[in-house]
Amino acid sequence: MSSLQAFLSFVTLGITVTSQTVPINTWPDQSFKSVSFAPPTFSVSKSGASLAPGLVFITPADVFGSGAQIMTDDGELVWNAPTAGIFSNLNVATLDSKPILTYWNGSGSANVAAQGHGYGYVSVLDDTYTEIHRICPDLGLNTLGVSYPCQADLHESYVTERGSLLVSAYNITIADLTPMGGPKEGYVYDGMFFEIDIKTQKILFSWSALEAGIPVNDTRLRVPFNNATNFGTAANPLDWFHINSVQAVGDGYLVNSRHLFTSFMIDSKGAIDWRLSGDTGGDFALDPNGHFSWQHHARMANVTSSSAILHMFNNYNSLPPLNGTHPTEGLVFNLDFTTKTATLLDDFHDPAQELFVDTQGAFSVLPNGNAFVGYGQIPLIKEYGPDGDVRMTIQFGDLTAAQSYRNYKLEWSGTPAQAPDVVVQSGIVYMSWNGATGVSDWVVYGGNSSETSALVEVGKVAKAGFETSFNITGSVSFVKVAAFDGSTMLRESAVVSVA
Fold it and tell me: What is the pLDDT of residues 241-267, one digit of tens each?
């Protein structure tokens, strides 16, 4: 079994969709002449109501492969990651007051029972798509003899305002599982995160759920301990905590545990300030309409000493009885730290297409007040208006056979360091420039010499999608193209022969 298949073997389990969703047996990829990229085709519906500006960031995966793409919300490819591997969390951040692009790349765990964990590195690109940093941490994790040179987990790669990176990690260790009916010296995955200086790769801070004193039997994960399942053994350590998001909040951290139905606020020393739990409320009186479980992508905003906004992707589905019983949704809470109340402000879901998502997912509140929801294991994205109306739906794969861990809508501008790509086939010039966001037109130059100075302009064409074509007329043996933004030339391609 390949690393990708091992990864997908967990995260595609238990998909439930309603009869209102029409499955598609196969899903077409896009194809181009000038490059070998094959991003998914978007099926897009829009209500006509105002959408937030920005591009769509996805890391789609299926049994045939995984990728990372930036797309327009009409499905036009903007940038395709040129490397191979399993991708996660393609995102935009800021470093030294400059925009950067980040993504995780690596491999799934060799243990099929590892439930979607991964080991890899985080790549940091500037706006020319040049890799300026690669964070490949050796975190000293126990991986039971399997060697991983880079040990950052795929779930979180969050860039802080202080120039550091937060990464999740899973460490195999021993814990007492007898309160759950397991062995005295059982094997577990300890949920951890590390704060790493991006430039020096020095570890600045680390946190462990076990070392913080969280009891293993607080887990809401209920599993049988027997020879058939091997839970709690070296062959199948118990993933009792399952860390899947971390955010820097002031000098502390917001940590989300999927398997405890809880988001924790951790102080700068690693102690727990408070917890918000989706079943009991934790340290808060929970709004009766705000219960959540198996949640992802917890984030805080508008934080003051007395209150904060907390939003999350509420899966509300996984193992019975919470499977297919409550539609997955994006939740927005107001946390009052004085009264210790958690009030539900918004609940984003589509009543015309109820989705029941077991794994993965992302929820973001956009600058214009819209909400952007990526449905993880189900290849659907929805943008909602502030009042919950569905303004856009994007499908990018077979509903039961494709996924993207997180999806975002973000503003981004890029001018690639590499030259444009060009190829000529049957008298047609095909041109593209992977990642360029500012091209308005292409100018085509041709001639009968490979010397660039001997080529003259033979035509101009407006940019038309990721790849633009132009028909050559007359006797031309060599061609180059140049990308323009209005009257400004941005970059020339190499000279290629006319086939």
Answer: 999 999 999 999 999 999 999 999 999
Task: Confirm if 155 and 166 have CB atoms less than 8 A apart.
Answer: no
**Whole-angstrom distance, CA of residue 141 vs CA of residue 118:** 12
Strand 380-384 to 371-374 pairing: antiparallel
pLDDT at 273: 98
The yes-or-no verdict on residue 328 having pLDDT over 90 is yes
Contacts of 489 (CB under 8 A, 6+ apart): 443, 482, 483
> Is the pLDDT reported for residue 15 higher than 50?
no
Amino acid 114 reads A
Helix (H, G, I), strand (E, B) or coil at 48: coil
Q: Which letter does DSSP use for residue 217 in this model? A: G
Residue 114 confidence (pLDDT): 54
8 A C-beta contact, residue 68 and residue 83: no
The SS3 assignment for 294 reads: coil
Residue that is written with structure tokens 């998502």 in the block = 357
Calculate mean pLDDT across residues 405-425.
98
Q: pLDDT at position 321, please?
A: 56
Contact 92, 410 (CB under 8 A): yes
> How do residues 270-283 score in pLDDT, each as one tens digit?
999 999 999 999 99
Distance CA 296, CA 274 (A): 18
69-71/77-80 β-pairing = antiparallel
Tell whether the model's pLDDT for residue 131 goes beyond 50: yes
> What's the longest Cα–Cα distance across the chain?
82
Q: Could you tell me how many helices (H) and strands (E) the chain has, helices first?
A: 1, 39
Q: Which residues touch 300 (CB under 8 Å, ≥6 apart)?
A: 247, 249, 254, 308, 309, 310
Q: How far apart are CA 242 and CA 11, in angstroms?
A: 13
Q: What is the DSSP letter of 227?
A: T
Instruction: Encode burial over 61-99: b for 16+ CB neighbours within 10 A, e otherwise.
Output: bbeeebbbbbbbbebbbbbbbeeebbbbbbbbbebeeeb
> Reduced to 3 states, what is the DSSP secondary structure of residue 482?
strand
Q: From start to end of 250-328, where are the E strands? A: 252-257, 262-266, 272-277, 285-286, 296-301, 307-314
Report the run of H or E that residue 369 belongs to, with start and end: none
Quickly count: other Cβ atoms within 10 Å of residue 275's Cβ: 21
